[in-house]
Design brief:
Blueprint (H helix, E strand, L loop, with lengths): L3 E5 L5 H8 L4 E5 L5 H7 L5 E4 L7 H6 L5 E4 L9 H6 L3 E3 L6 H16 L2 H9 L17 E5 L3 H12 L3 E5 L5 H7 L2 E3 L2 H5 L4 E4 L13 H5 L5 E5 L8 H9 L3 E6 L19 E3 L8 H21 L13 H22 L6 E10 L7 H12 L13 H7 L3 E7 L7 E9 L3 E9 L2 E7 L2 E5 L4 E8 L4 H11 L4 E7 L6 E8 L5 H8 L4 E8 L1
Parallel strand pairs: 1-2, 1-3, 3-4, 4-5, 6-7, 6-9, 7-8, 9-10, 10-11, 11-12, 13-14
Antiparallel strand pairs: 13-15, 15-16, 16-17, 17-18, 19-21, 19-22, 20-21
Length: 531
């Protein structure tokens, strides 16, 4: 039996390497810092490659790596791996999304304590021979209000530590259910403004998306409680650094503690570099020996198990399915993911249930992976898109208190096949459904409205009064701004009530165009859905 050849290209835990070397069927090449030229020259030898963030697995490398089965990333981000090309080549890409949870939570909590008691600046003063006791009077965190923006794994761990120190924890996370919030003993609120209004401390634990960029912007920061202190160990760009610097000068913000930055490393004239109210560290959240060891051992075991047994854990690009299953359900996977992505963008906050209903022929097959595809698409709005996949999506749902269920009805409806994805909250629900017309997938229902739209690109949803002339005004406005319509579907349930228009566009309209659409008499809402 031939051996599996594994390249360890970046530093990982020696224990992880030892576990690979202990396997009789493995030949482990530890070549830390391999040059791009050597990697290309040797790529065809390897069945598996393990990297961190230094080594780049490009399309060129993948073209040479004809025997490659799996790429293991010791960490979360896969920006250094051409995942699309790996998928095309049938190479599984797996990462370790949970390995640095505790380290990052502890680092963020340490920053909060250090900021509250001026530890770094007091230490610097002592090192210079001074005794500035009065200058460094700090603040207790006991009985203070903490706002946690984002209650994923790290936000949850931070909240637990804060409560142990006697803090009141208020949480904002539109994807966290009320039942999960009660279990975690945090006060769940509906908006960022509610969360930060009375906060003495704010900590950020959200993915970077267009919606979360500068979630603490100048407008929100200006309304914060005087003396507030802010921690960001999540993503640079969640915080408007210039606005924070101004708020420190204005006496609104008493301190800021950062481990991540909009530009890394920060530019030489970084606005907070010399601030006496800032505690700064160089992206050290995951930099503990335990975290590095955890991710190294985890990725080594993940790669080992895949090579030996074919199992897939924390794959970012494909589920573990055989050819027979692909033949039966392959076309539904991407479609269900898009339905999940669509419903996530129209669903109300704080969902507690995601239900996938199957009708017709599709209900006769094992729909587990189809449901996971819908869940994956739904979760990508609340999690890092490179962290959630078919394998770990149920775990992410559990952390958010989201119950995932499915139902089957073999009896056909008016469609041969129908997949319906519903997201429920305590106060309401959102629902989308789709089917295939031949080999072409189509969205056929949004909430209670019958539509027909392609599940691709940019979808413009309008709700409007059912009166003459509205469609013409919409089309004219889009044409004036060079936004081309690919397909338009009109829907109304009762004459004279609110109607829905679903429009496939060739390009996304600007915010200005959306504003102008909503100013058309009778148009009540205009929303762009990215699929």
């Amino acid at each position: 039996m031939s051996k599996h050849c594994i390249l360890v290209a970046d530093p990982i835990s020696p224990k992880g390497i030892e576990e690979l070397q202990a396997e009789s069927g493995f030949d482990v090449d530890v070549n830390i810092g391999i040059s791009p030229e050597d990697l290309l020259a040797k790529a065809d030898q390897y069945h598996a490659i393990i990297v961190r963030s230094q080594t780049k697995i490009t399309a060129e490398v993948l073209a040479k790596a004809t025997q490659l089965k799996v790429i293991g990333r010791a960490g979360v981000g896969v920006d250094n791996i051409d995942v699309a090309e790996a998928s095309a080549k049938g190479v599984v890409v797996m990462n370790t999304p949970a390995g640095n949870t505790i380290s990052t939570a502890e680092h963020a909590f340490t920053l909060m304590l250090s900021m509250a008691r001026h530890i770094p600046h007091a230490h610097a003063s002592m090192s210079e021979g001074r005794w500035d006791r009065k200058k460094f009077q700090g603040a207790e965190i006991y009985n203070k209000t903490l706002a946690v923006l984002g209650m994923g794994r790290i936000g949850t761990e931070f909240a637990r530590r804060a409560m142990a120190f006697g803090m009141r924890v208020v949480a904002y996370d539109p994807y966290l259910s009320s039942s999960r919030a009660r279990l975690l003993r945090v006060e769940l609120v509906d908006t960022v403004e509610e969360a930060v209004a009375d906060a003495d401390f704010i900590t950020l634990h959200m993915p970077m998306t267009p919606e979360t960029k500068h979630i603490l912007n100048a407008e929100r920061i200006a309304k914060l409680k005087k003396g507030v202190r802010i921690v960001n160990c999540a993503r640079g760009g969640l915080l408007d650094e210039a606005a924070v610097a101004q708020a420190i000068e204005d006496g609104i913000v008493a301190g800021v503690a950062l481990d991540v930055y909009e530009t890394e490393p920060p530019v030489e004239d970084f606005v907070l570099r010399d601030s006496a109210s800032a505690v700064l560290t160089p992206h050290l959240g995951a930099s503990t020996s335990e975290a590095q060891e955890n991710v190294g051992i985890e990725i080594a075991r993940t790669v080992r198990d895949h090579l030996k047994e074919g199992t897939v854990v924390n794959a970012v690009n494909m589920p573990n399915i055989d050819e027979k299953t692909v033949a039966a359900i392959g076309r539904y996977l991407d479609f269900a993911e898009k339905l999940g992505r669509l419903v996530s963008q129209i669903a109300p906050s704080r969902p507690n249930t995601l239900l996938v209903d199957y009708s017709g022929k599709v209900s006769d097959v094992d729909t587990t992976l189809i449901t996971r595809s819908a869940l994956k698409g739904y979760l990508q709005s609340s999690c890092d898109s490179d962290a959630v996949n078919h394998i770990n999506a149920p775990g992410f749902a559990e952390t958010q208190g989201l119950r995932v269920t499915e139902s089957h009805s073999p009896d056909p409806t008016e469609f041969t096949d129908l997949i319906e994805v519903t997201v429920k909250t305590d106060d309401g629900e959102a629902r989308v459904a789709g089917t295939f017309f031949g080999n072409s997938p189509r969205i056929v229902k949004i909430d209670d409205h019958r539509v027909e739209a392609a599940p691709s690109g940019c979808l413009l949803l309008l709700t409007n009064e059912d009166t003459p002339g509205r469609v013409g005004q919409v089309g004219s406005l889009l044409g004036e701004h060079k936004v081309n319509i690919g397909n338009m579907s009109l829907s109304r349930n009762t004459v004279g009530e609110l109607a829905m228009t679903a429009i496939n566009l060739d390009s996304a309209p600007s915010e200005e165009v959306l504003r102008l659409l909503e100013e058309i008499p009778g148009v009540t809402a205009a929303r762009v859905i990215e699929l």
